[in-house]
Amino acid sequence: xxxxxxxxxxxxxxxxxxxxxxxxxxxxxxxxxxxxxxxxxxxxxxxxxxxxxxxxxxxxxxxxxxxxxxxxxxxxxxxxxxxxxxxxxxxxxxxxxxxxxxxxxxxxxxxxxxxxxxxxxxxxxxxxxxxxxxxxxxxxxxxxxxxxxxxxxxxxxxxxxxxxxxxxxxxxxxxxxxxxxxxxxxxxxxx
Length: 191
Prior knowledge:
This protein is an alpha+beta fold. It has helices at 4-10, 28-57, 71-91, 93-102, 177-187, and strands at residues 22-24, 105-108, 113-117, 123-127, 133-138, 142-149, 167-175.
C-alpha cells in the first residue's frame, strides 16, 4: 500500500523515527481533468470571443481592412493581446495540472498527513491533528479523501470554504480512498 516513488519523495520530510503507514500519488490524468476541465472549457469560449474581437479590430469584417490611424483599433489590439495570454493560460490548465499531479506525493504517518506538491517550487503541507477533522470520501476504488478541519484556516494557497471558516485539504484522485480513510480512523493517533 506504499507507493515507492511517493515514499522516496516524502522521506526527507519525516521526523527522526517517524514511519509512513501509507504513501501514494494522484492519478495524473484524472487529477488534471478534474481540476482543469472547467477552466479549459471556459478558455475555449474565451478564445472564440477573442478571435471575433481580433477580426473586428483588424478590419476583417469590413472591406477597408485595418486603419492604423484609428487609436481605438490599436488599443483594442494591445488589450486583445493581453486577453490572448489569459486565454492561453486557461487552455494550458489541464497540462499544468497534469505536471502538478506528477510531482505530488501524499503520505500518512501515525502522527500526521503529508502533502508534497509543486512543479517548480515544492510546497509541503502537514495535516494534523485528526481529532477535530471530518473525513469526506468520494469514491471507493478511485477517488478523493478530503480532510476537513473545523478550525479556522488562514488563507495560504489552499481551499478555504468561504465564510464558514472550514479548511479542506486532502488526498485527491488516489487509488483506494476507502482504505486510506480506514487507516486514518484506525491507526492514526488523535490528540
